[in-house]
Automatic annotation (TrEMBL):
Keyword Transcription regulation: yes
Protein family: Belongs to the LysR transcriptional regulatory family.
Entries under SUPFAM superfamilies matching the protein: Periplasmic binding protein-like II (SSF53850), Winged helix' DNA-binding domain (SSF46785)
UniProt keyword Transcription present: yes
Swiss-Prot/TrEMBL keywords: DNA-binding, Transcription, Transcription regulation
InterPro entries named among the record's database cross-references: LysR-type_TF_proteobact-type, LysR_HTH_N, LysR_subst-bd, WH-like_DNA-bd_sf, WH_DNA-bd_sf
Organism this protein belongs to: Methylobacterium platani
Chain ranges of the HTH lysR-type domain: 5-62
Matching Gene3D superfamilies: Periplasmic binding protein-like II, Winged helix-like DNA-binding domain superfamily/Winged helix DNA-binding domain
PANTHER family: HTH-TYPE TRANSCRIPTIONAL REGULATOR (PTHR30537), HTH-TYPE TRANSCRIPTIONAL REGULATOR TRPI (PTHR30537:SF74)
Any Pfam family matching the protein: HTH_1
Official protein name in the record: HTH lysR-type domain-containing protein
MF-aspect GO terms: DNA-binding transcription factor activity; sequence-specific DNA binding
One GO-annotated biological process of the protein: DNA-templated transcription
């Protein structure tokens, strides 16, 4: 006797036992009566026992088959219950989708603040540069950049700014007399995905200070990678302030001259209204909006004192 009969054979046998009819069992599983009969023969071979017997043009369970069915019915009931528990658990998890660098360098770093609030919501963070279909349940909330996608339910989160930053060791012993001196060091460039439009780079920052920078020494496809290169002392990067907060606080990155450029477009938060019915979802939604407002204030240029 096989330790574990084929699942399809067990399903066919269970359907016959539940419906009492070969025809109804076939309809229940969406197959032909012949397919049911074939699976039943496989089951009998696997367990080496006579489980069904002819009943006119159909089949019925033998006494041994009825005993066996009572046992496997408990197994299928347990599987159904486990599936229901899993669906219920999954249905209450709030999925937040973000651009990869936004997850790794911004909101992912702030999640400790959320957990310290003692919130009951269960959160799943997904980094993806592809825009999920919130209406189809691909995610519950999405942080994305720019206004090229238009979910029906969205709000502006914050507008970020970029500023030249580097590791302190890069400029140690090499004092900078003005912002143009930054251009004497290796420059790290970030090449955005074209679907996000053009991002301000060294050419734009050079116009801000009235000069023309040389070509960048290294180009990266992700902001996070370029920031990591700057942390490693490879050069200056125009870092988004939302992505370098902890590094600035700890002194791992420094801003020799605080001359900021705004990104062309803001970040947005989109959501599926049905998802806000999940446990803690509305509180999490409000928290995200608050974090966005706080970041907007941090990223904005410092107010100038009147002359």
């Amino acid at each position: 006797m096989s330790a574990l009969p084929p699942l399809k054979a067990l399903q066919a046998f269970d359907a016959l036992g539940r419906t009492g009819s070969l025809t109804l069992a076939a309809a229940d599983l969406g197959v032909t009566p012949g397919a049911i009969g074939q699976q039943l023969r496989k089951l009998e071979e696997a367990v080496a026992a006579k489980l069904v017997a002819p009943d006119g043009r159909g089949l019925r369970l033998t006494p041994l088959g009825a005993t066996y069915h009572a046992q496997i019915r408990q197994g299928f009931a347990a599987l159904a219950e486990a599936g229901a528990v899993l669906r219920e658990a999954a249905a209450d998890v709030i999925v937040l989708s973000c651009l990869t660098t936004v997850l790794g360098k911004w909101i992912g770093r702030r999640m400790r603040d959320w957990t310290e609030l003692g919130a009951q919501a269960r959160i799943s963070l997904v980094g993806s540069d592809a825009e999920p279909d919130l209406g189809q349940g691909a995610a519950d909330l999405r942080i994305y950049y720019g206004g090229r996608t238009h979910p029906p339910h969205r709000t502006e989160l914050f507008t970020d700014h970029i500023v030249p930053v580097c590791a302190p060791a890069l400029i140690a012993g090499r004092p900078l007399s003005g912002p143009e001196d930054i251009l004497r060091f290796p420059l790290l460039h970030i090449a955005w995905d074209p679907r996000f439009g053009a991002n301000p780079g060294w050419a734009e920052w050079g116009r801000l200070i009235g000069t023309r920078p040389p070509p960048a020494n290294l180009t990266y496809g992700l902001s996070g990678s370029a920031i990591d290169a700057a942390l490693a002392g490879q050069g200056f990067v125009l870092g988004q302030l939302a992505f370098i907060g902890p590094e600035l606080e700890t002194g791992r990155l420094v801003i020799p001259f605080d001359l900021r450029l705004p990104l062309p477009e803001p970040y947005f938060l989109a959501w599926n209204p049905a998802s806000l019915k999940k446990t803690g979802a509305r509180a999490f939604h409000r928290w995200l909006l608050g974090e966005g407002r706080a970041q907007g204030l941090l990223s904005a240029p410092p107010a100038r004192e009147p002359a």
